[in-house]
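Worked Example 4.2. Read the sequence first, then its C-alpha cells.
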Amino acid sequence: MTPSLTGAIHVCLLGDDPVRIMTPALDPALAPREVVLVVSPQMQERAGWLEAVLRPRGIQVTRWPIADAWDITGVRDTLLHHVIERGGEPLILNASGGTKPMALGAFDVFRGLGRPVFYVHPVADQLIWLHPDDRGTHPLADVVNLRTFFEAHGAAVEAVAGTQGVPTAYRELTDTLIRHVARFERPLGTLNYLAGSARGEDLFSRPTGHTPPGFGDLVHLFAEAGVLRPVGDRLQFKNEDARFFAQGGWLEQHVFSVLWGLKAERPIQDLARGVEIVRHVGGAPVHNELDVACLADNALYLVEAKTKHFEKGEGAEVVYKIETLRELLGAVHARAMIVSYKPLGEAHRRRARDLGIATCIGEEIGWLREQLRHLIPAQRGR
C-alpha cells in the first residue's frame, strides 16, 4: 500500500513526456509541496510549460540544470550535489522521464542515499515503486482536464464550441442521416456547400440551383429540426450554430454525443468539441482546431469528424493533421480516430491503420459507439 506522500518533493527528470510528471504531481494522494525539474538545455521550453501548469496550483517549482542529458557521470554528480545540499528534506525521485543515462544516474544517487524512487507506467496510468520495491503500486487520480493537458504540451486553449449534451431534435436528425448514408451522401454535399455560402446577419444561402435526388427530403428533415427554412430558391439558417450544424457540424456533435453517453462505462474525465488551440513555433502562433477531444484515464483521444467529399490530396491531409496533433499533444498518451460520412480512399485508410489511427467511414458510423468503446478501454493498460 502506498504511504501518505503529501508534502514531499518530487525530483523529476524532464524529457518529451510531461504527463508522467504532471499526473503524480496533481494527484491529491501524493500532493507534493515542490516539484524539482532536472532540465537539460534542450528541455528549457518544456520546463516553462510545466511550471505554468503547476505553480497556479500552489506547487513550488525549482530547476536543477544539467549540461548534457547523455552524460551519466555528469548527471550523477549534479544530482548528488543537490540532494546532499537539501539535507533531510523529503526528496522522492520520479524516474519516469529524461534519457536513459539520466534515469540510471538519478536512480543510482537516490538508491545509494536511501531515498525513495517511483516510476509512472506509460500505459497503465499507475505509479510503481522502484525503491524500496515493497510499496506496491498506486493508480493515479484522473484529475487533469483538457486545458491543463494541452498547456503541459505547450498549447493554449482559445475557444471551445461545446462541453454539454446535444439537443434532442438534433440527435434525432443525426440518427436519421446515419441510418440512410447511401440516400443522403450526395445531397448532404450540396447542403454543406449552401451552408458554407450563408453569410451576413440573415444567413441566407446562395440560390440552390440544380440539386441531386433526395435534396428536398433532406431540407425537409433539417427544417423540421428547426435548423433552417426554405425561402424561395435559398435556404435561411436559424442562427450561426444551426448553419455550422448543417455544414457538417452535425457529425462532430454526433461523435461528441456518443462519447457523452459512454461516460457511465468509460473513465472519461473531460470532453469537448470544437476546441481551438494555439501553439507557438519559432515565435509565431500556429492555430489548430480539434473536432472532438476527450481525456480518459489521463490519456488523450482525438476524433476528426468529416462530412465533405475528399478532393485530391485532402484525404492524406486529414491523416497527416490528426497524426501530427496526436504526436504533439499526447504522443504515447494519445490515440486518434477519423470519422467520415464520405468515403476515404483505401490508400489513406491503409496509411491511417499503419499509423495506429482508427477509422469509421460511411455506414460504419452506425456502429460508432462500439468502435469508440474499443478505442477507449474501461481501464487503460489494466
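Now turn to a second chain, presented in exactly the same format:
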Amino acid sequence: MTSDITKLRPDTLFDGGDLDCGSGLILLIRENMLRTPVDGILEMRSREPTVADDLPPWCRMVGHEYLGSRAAEGFVRYFVRRRAAREIAAETEALTRDKQEAKAFEWRARARSVGHQHSKVYARNFSFDIGQPASFEEKDSYPSAIEYLLGAVAGSLTTGFASDCSRAGLEVDDIEISISARLNNILAHLGVEEGDPSFKTIEVKCFVSTFEDENTVKTIWAGTVNRSPLVATLKKGMNLDIRLAIV
C-alpha cells in the first residue's frame, strides 16, 4: 500500500453507492477497471461498509493492487491499481463471463401448503408465510399473496431508488412508498362467480425527503422505475399509476 494515499491521483473514478460485492458491484468495478490505463489508478467511492473487507481479497485474487482507502464525508474512497497489460485479455473475458452468468441467473422458490389457508414459501436461506387468497379483515395471521406482490413492487422501488440516489451522490433523508390496488373482479378470485380476477389498477406514490435538485431527483426516480423488472412486467398487462412527491 502507498505510504501517502492523499497524493494518489486516480485515472478513473466511479461511485458504487451502497452496492455490496454480491449485488453487482464487482461487475461495475471490472467495467471501470477496463477503462483505466495499465498501471493507472481506479478510485471507487462506496457507502457500503462490507466493501472494506471484501475488496482487498478480491484484488489479490484477480491480480490488481489494492492501494488502500480513505474516509470522506458520507463515503469511503477506495484506490486500486490496474494489473499488467498481459492480463487485460483475462480481465475482459472475466467481465464477459460475469455478464453472461448474470443474464442467465434463475431465481427459484418453492411453496408448501402447511395448514388451512396457510402456505410457506422457501427462497434461498429465507422462508415466509402466506395466508388466505384474500381477506377483508383488518388483522390476519399472515399476509395474502396479493399483499406480498404489492410489497415486492414497493420494496423493489424503495431499495432501488435509495441505491440509485446513493450511486449518484444524492443526500436523501427518507424514502417511503404507499401502494394500493384493485382487482377487476375479486369475486372471481374467490371462486364466487365467473369473471376477470386480474389487477385493474395499481397506484404507487413515492415520497422522498431531500434538498437535492428536483429535476435530478426526478431523473433518478424515472431510471429506477424503468429498470424495475416487476414494474416492467406489470405494465405490459395493466394500468400502473406511479407518482413521485418530493417533500
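Notes for the reader: The chain has a mean pLDDT of 91. Residues 5-103 form a domain with the Translation Initiation Factor IF3 fold (CATH 3.30.110.40).
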